[in-house]
């Protein structure tokens, strides 16, 4: 078996002295919040700051947050993050049943591979 150097976006999988410590991640991140009402100022986005804090706590820097309306703006925000070389793009919102809740549809053409097991784990763990 040959050694493969870790990419800078890979999680640190070495054994840590504190098994409860969160894994350390390297690179940049962008949080894309899909919410028409938060984007137009009807209410404050409370999820985005929590996600930014969580990602920063794992070593990612910088972590940017954008709030966009549901629909095609989500796809544009994700594409902009990819074009900027962002290592991790995390989306939240836009997964309901209204006609504009299309985050999955906006995301699909931009990914290289679906990883349904990760999505199932997120749903299971909440």
Automatic annotation (TrEMBL):
Q: Where is the MoaB/Mog domain?
A: 31-125
> In which pathway does this enzyme or protein participate?
Cofactor biosynthesis; molybdopterin biosynthesis
A Pfam family cross-referenced in the UniProt record is: MoCF_biosynth
Record keywords, A-Z: Molybdenum cofactor biosynthesis
GO terms for biological process?
A: Mo-molybdopterin cofactor biosynthetic process
Q: What is this protein called?
A: MogA/MoaB family molybdenum cofactor biosynthesis protein
Q: Which organism is it from?
A: Brachybacterium massiliense
């Amino acid at each position: 078996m040959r050694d493969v150097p870790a990419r800078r976006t890979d999680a640190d999988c070495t054994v840590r002295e504190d098994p409860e410590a969160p894994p350390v991640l390297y690179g940049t991140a962008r949080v894309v919040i899909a919410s028409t009402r938060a984007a137009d100022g009807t209410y404050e986005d409370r999820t985005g700051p929590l996600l930014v804090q969580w990602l920063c706590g794992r070593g990612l820097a910088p972590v940017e947050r954008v709030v966009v309306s549901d629909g095609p703006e989500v796809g544009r925000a994700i594409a902009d993050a990819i074009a900027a070389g962002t290592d991790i793009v995390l989306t939240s919102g836009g997964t309901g049943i209204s006609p504009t809740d299309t985050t999955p549809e906006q995301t699909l053409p931009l990914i290289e591979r679906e990883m349904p097991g990760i999505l199932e784990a997120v749903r299971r763990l909440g």
